[in-house]
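Researcher: Structure prediction, please.
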Amino acid sequence: MKLSPLARVKKEFGSKDKLVSEIVSLLKSLNAPLPDDIEKRLKAQTNQKLIKLYNNAKKISEIGKDKVVEVILKAKRPTSKKVDVDYKKSLLSYPISKLYDMYVSATKSLKGLK
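Model: Predicted structure follows.
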């Protein structure tokens, strides 16, 4: 039987506060731009959204944020050898979940090209 989001949070992290602190530490390690009241904002989110954000941030930290951006750039212009510096800079400022979704989409499109 599949656990509810609340049960998953309690089983894997112990409490919502510990999950929020894990997410904040992951985001800080990825040099993501964070507002001052990030913990307050995250505590107001649902458990399901927090679990998704945690999983996305963990996957990006395992892959590497620069590698994720490179894959997205390659999918955007597969034949171009020149890197669009401005677009790369804007990608690095994107939220983690959006960046991960773009990465998944880019890997699928690159597999279709081969």
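Model: The first helix runs from residue 5 to 12.
Researcher: Thanks, that helps.
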